[in-house]
Amino acid sequence: MANYSEEQIRSLGLNSALLPKHVAVIMDGNGRWAKQRHLPRSAGHRAGVDRLRGIIRLSSDLGVASLTLYAFSTENWKRPSDEVGTLMALLIEYFTKEIDELFSNNVRIRIIGAYEEFAAPVRSVIERAMKRTQANTGLNLNIALNYGSRAEILRAANLAMRQAISDGRSEITAQELENYLYTAGQPEVDLLIRTSGEMRISNFLLYQCSYAEFLFPEEYWPDFTDEAYLEALRTYQKRSRRFGGLEEEA
Ligand code: IPE
Ligand code: IPE
Ligand code: MG
Question: Which CATH class is domain 6-148+188-236?
Answer without folding.
Answer: alpha beta
